[in-house]
Amino acid sequence: MSDPTDYSITARTSGESSNWSYLKDGHSFGAFDPSGDVTGPGGAGLYYRDTRFLSRYELRVNGDRPALLRSSTDADGTVLQATLAGPKGIVIERHIYLFGNALNERLRVLNRGDREFEVRIEYAFAVDFADIFEVRGQFSRPVRGHLECRTGQGGVRFDYGALDGLGRSTAIDFVPAIGDLGPDRAERRLRLAAGESNTSTVTVQCRRGDEATSKPAFEAGLAALKRARAHRRAGAVRIQTSSERLNEWLRRCVADLYLLTTDTDQGLYPFAGLPWFSAPFGRDGIITALETLWLDPRIARGVLGYLAVNQAQEASSAHDSEPGKILHEARFGEMANLGEVPFGRYYGSADATPLFVVLAGEFFGRTGDRAFIERLWPHVEAALEWIDRFGDLDGDGFSEYRPQTERGLRNQGWKDSTDSVFHADGERAAGPIALVEIQGYVFAARRHAAALARVLGLDSRAESLERQAESLRRDFEHHFWSETLGSYALALDGAKRRCVVRASNQGHLLLAGIVAPERAAQVAELLRGPGFFSGWGVRTVAAGEARYD
To answer: Rounded to two decimals, what is the model's pTM?
Structure first.
């Protein structure tokens, strides 16, 4: 059992399987095995807003698991398709998709044998309404809500009296109605002549609180989902090359991007990843928006809008927040709502705030959307105020971080593991910590904000920001450059000792533009050298460093 005060949620295993298939729509996602089942230990299941609404969902034919013939998802990642083989020439075709907060399955059973055959189709299912942090962290909560189950005409419903006051329910419905139905299984008997087939559907509806739900027929729901996906991709740049293989790779990349992208009230937001990070993360959303500005600037607009609405308004040590700070992570599950984990609205990220300003500047450069920037400008100013007032903890001109709560993240850059910032001998750096890349982000934020201020006719503000940026650049060169490394230090610790460690963090300075051209070339050459470049990418820590693994 892990320390209950350790909210980094370090799992004993990965909790996921390399052969899982993922489906996602909105705030729902599912992790299935290739057969379309939810089975086995770990984190497989159907999730909605950080709660697992379905923890078991297994298909059996005449009491046995059918053999997998083939499995795939379609080109845009919408439908999981599996073909299975049962006894005596029975073939089963499964088509599963998620739409809104529901799983939808169409099951076709075909008798390819040469004589009539009776077949039993059985589903075994279970729910646990586990919070995603329970599943991921593999620890038990001391108190849970009450679970009830009731069966009805052709379906079964599970109701969970959650402790956060938001009741949750899972409704499993079978069409045509199924006769043999219990709290953990449903069975349908079919007698199929040679060449005959039977088609049925299953809907698993997730509901939280008094949310409205709908149950469109299988084909109608799938058509609506496809239309929504097509509309979401319609604003993206279309790329066509002379290589069909490359075209297919690009199509899949775009499909995966929009699979992770969720519609919010402020526009599109790319969630951070499946399975454990299917949620809005500030830094991840901003970086994704920066990397896809050329492809679809609507993503950047949605990210900026969402983060502006969720910008911190008050100081809260429990949430690592101060006015103007940009969100690190938003969660919607029972544990977050109750404060059992601090991540409901958590601001423990020192880099998301300057990166928010950088994204605003880059967005305007890509779109020229002055009206949007005018609406966003108060949030940009609030972010700049946070950098000056709260980001510089000791008044030395550099941005540092020090967690305000032991329940939060110890390190608050993009490498947020507890041992990611260290000295050459492997000793962990004591805070407050001034990370190298964050100084670059702040420099870039001030330069971008100055450019936006000039667009808005705020020339004196622009000049002030430009002076701040230049002052930071000079001080940064003096305090961070290490002749020993031939690069910049990874960080300054709380005693202003340099962490003389070669890491990929220094490469972010090339994006920020804070370094002189001759030193930029040295940093780039170091990253391309054998200590860093593996052939597959740049290592996050150079080979030979004390904590390199």
So the answer is: 0.92
